[in-house]
Amino acid sequence: MTELPLLLLVTLLIVSALWLRSEFSQRLGEQRANALFNNTLIGMARISPHGRWIAVNPTLCRILDTPAGQLIGRHWLDILDPDERAIAEQRFAEACALPGSEFTHTHRLKQAGPIARYVSLAFQPVWDKKSEISYFTLLIEDITARHEAERKLSRQVARSEAMVELPQRAETLSEPTFMQYATGEAERLTGSQIAFMHFVNDDEESIELVAWSNNTLAHYCHATYQSHYPVSEAGIWADAIRQRDVVIVNDYAQASNRRGLPEGHSPLHRLLCVPVIENGKVCMVTGVGNKSTPYGETDVDTVRLIGNETWRIARRARVDKALQLAMQVVNASPVVCFRWQASNGWPVVFVSDNIRQWGYTPEQLITGQPLFADIVHPEDLPRVADEVMRHTASGCSNYEQEYRLITAEKQLIWVVDRTQVIRDTMGLPLFYDGVLTDITDRKTQQLLLADNLKQQQALNKRLEEANNQLLQSEKMASIGQLAAGVAHELNNPIGFVHSNLGTLDGYLHDLMAIIDGYEQATTEHCTDPAVLGKISRLREERDFAFLKADIFSLVAESKDGLNRVKKIVQDLKSFSRVGEQEWQEADLHQGLESTLNIVWNELKYKCQIIKDYGDLPPVYCLISQLNQVFMNLLVNASQAIDKQGTVTLRTCCLDNDKVCIEISDTGCGIPAEHLSRIFDPFFTTKPVGQGTGLGLSLSYSIVQRHQGQLTVRSTPGQGTSFRVILPIHPSTASTPAPEAAR
């Protein structure tokens, strides 16, 4: 039995004493008793032993919002909520059975409006002289406001206890179990019968059901459901996502936007859904339903607090779990994570545990024993510090460095440091977050590769020199083969020049004799016919007229012969100086003509030369090496012709950036089985002593060096055609020629 308020007890004692008829008549008059009954601020009434109203005061009528006429004669239990009547009737019976007992209790009145009202009731039986109950005195006080304050306080206490309990439960429960526990708390604190929580994906277009309360699963919802589904397919509760606001439905049957419930789902009468919004996005929804009374703002606050705290804990747990997994991955890998403070000495504020692989512990580096700067190789430290300062000053947020570290065992390792600069709102650096990867093996391989590259470059240089020597040797061998023809070509002009010089010597003697005769006659001023006749005979004998005409022809022919000798010598000199020319623009037609002049003696007795020259631009090339290609192809064409044949030279442009030189012959051709090998070094089909097998191989290499193509078409018995395709501006032309070629 609850204690009555002091005022109520005092009033009850006074009224009970007044209503004792014998005492009342002795101490107060009837008029004063009625005045107190009608004007007191507390509801007062008399009730028959059978529980019927006998008399009620105006205050009681106001509290019950019912006229006295509608109360007199009715049972007093009719004013109570049906759920309250059983306990009230039991207490009333106890008061009737026990003399001297009193009945006090708090009850909820029958609800006539949207707000439930509560009253405090105090009964006192009045006994007559026969020890029978004459009537009951009843005092009623409206405690709705106080009751609501107590309920709010109780809810706040319960809610506070739940909020304290949530993080504690999260430490021992798995995420699904914790989420289910949280839904149960939302259900309990709001007096609901069902509760659920959904995660909302980042796109806010799909959701994940993460928990239903135990009570919901056990007693209310047996529907088959999917954990993931689109927001567009969700029911009225998802308006919390779509509208980003609280959804309260206190009459689900009359809701215009309800979508129906799946088979097996519990009936809905009332529904409250509250979204959790973070960074402008709905990330979770907490819902409760089927509360016995309408949902209000207190319920909204409760669900919002539970939902927000649950989301915060779940998100933090997921972040912590992801961080733990990441750290497990980091610690299991050779990658070491650091955070340095942006101050002198780069003090370490965090380092992953796998720093132990280098012989240090995280505690050592965090306490500065040693400082990070102390484990950087002294030779690398100035460079590293300078790079850090430059990157920081430039406002760079990410940069990468390579340097050496000294392990605790005094071993050197190479690391690549990928650093992110963390800055404050003013742009000043706060921390350097570095990820260090051991690249010692890679660096060792790079150093070995660099050493191998130097050796390879030296070897390539030697090979280039050997190639140039081989090219020179092949040229000289070719010239050696052509030496007899070249000598013959030289002997022809030299022979007639020598003969002409002998004839010219006789001419000069005759001319001198004639000149001497004229000088003698001129000196003696001779007019003697005999002397003049002698001079005339001398002119006839010496054939002065022929000498006069032939001597100039003789000199011109000799000069031409000497020019031919000079040209052959110049072509030989130019041809034999392999590699002495640098990359330069050259006229390929001039190169062909020069080469033809060199090999002419090889061709002229059995080959008819046909020239079909197109319009070629200057080509960037090593012209002396291309001349070697032309010579090899021309000599091969000549040697392929047994008695008489034709050698055709064709040139043209291709695709505006290439030129084509084609040398075709009508010789014996190349057997099909040899076509795939003709460019192999030392392969030849010529008899021993007539070829080295290097001509076409070197030609192929030269054309490749010019980024060109050397192809062949041949039909045995009909002839062969070699085609040289060259770019007008090869990319290799931009690189210096090898030392040996300069």
Description:
By secondary structure, the protein is α+β, with helices and mostly antiparallel strands. The chain has 21 helices and 23 strands. The two termini are 120 Å apart. 47% of the residues lie in helices and 21% in strands.
Report the strand count. 23
| Rg (C-alpha, Å) | 61 Å
Strand numbers in spatial order across the main sheet:
8-7-6-11-10-9
Query: Which spans have pLDDT < 50 for at least 5 consecutive residues?
Result: 18-26, 734-742
Distance between the termini: 120 Å
- What portion of residues belong to β-strands? 15-25%
pLDDT averaged over residues: 79
The helix-and-strand class reads alpha+beta
The number of helices is 21
- Overall shape: it is rod-shaped
Helix content: 40-55%
How many strands, which pairing sense, and closed or not: the largest β-sheet? 6 strands, antiparallel
Task: Give a quick summary of the entry.
This protein has 742 residues and is an alpha+beta fold.
Write out key terms for the chains shown.
742 residues, alpha+beta, 6-stranded antiparallel β-sheet, 5-stranded antiparallel β-sheet, 21 helices, 23 strands
